[in-house]
TrEMBL record:
Keyword Kinase tagged: no
Record-stated family: Belongs to the cytochrome c oxidase bacterial subunit 4 family.
Chief localisation class: membrane
Domain of life the protein comes from: Bacteria
Protein name: Cytochrome C oxidase subunit IV
One Pfam short name: COX4_pro
Cellular compartments annotated: Cell membrane
Transmembrane parts of this sequence: 25-45, 51-71, 83-105
UniProt topology in membrane: Multi-pass membrane protein
C-alpha cells in the first residue's frame, strides 16, 4: 500500500469555529443601545405618549430576540426543541390572553 492510499483513507476532521468574545461585545453594546433608546423615549417629556409606548414595546421585542439568540444561544444548531417549546408556550399564552379578553368583553 502506497503513502497516497493511506492518506485517502483517513477521515476528514472538521474544526468547530469558536465564537469568541467579539460577537458578545457587539451584542452587549447593541443591548445597551436598545436600553438607552427606550430610556431616552421615556425620559423625554415632549414626546407623544402613544409613540413612547410603541417605541418601548418594539425595543423590548428586539431585546428579547437579542437575548434569546445570542445569550441563550438559540441561533446555534441543535436548539430546535427549545425553540419549538417556546413557540408553543407563546402560542398558549397568546391564546389565553385573547380568550381572557374575549371573556371579559363579551
Amino acid at each position: 500500500m502506497s503513502a497516497q492510499d493511506q492518506t485517502d483513507q483517513q477521515p476528514v476532521k472538521h474544526r468547530h469555529r469558536a465564537e469568541g468574545p467579539q460577537k458578545h461585545v457587539v451584542v452587549f453594546i447593541f443591548s445597551i443601545i436598545l436600553t438607552l433608546i427606550a430610556f431616552a423615549a421615556a425620559a423625554a417629556g415632549g414626546v407623544n405618549t402613544t409613540f413612547t409606548i410603541i417605541l418601548m414595546v418594539v425595543m423590548a421585542i428586539l431585546q428579547v430576540f437579542v437575548q434569546l439568540g445570542y445569550w441563550m444561544h438559540l441561533k446555534d444548531k441543535g436548539h430546535l426543541m427549545p425553540i419549538l417549546f417556546m413557540a408553543f408556550g407563546f402560542f398558549v399564552a397568546f391564546t389565553c390572553i385573547i380568550m381572557a379578553l374575549f371573556w371579559v368583553w363579551w
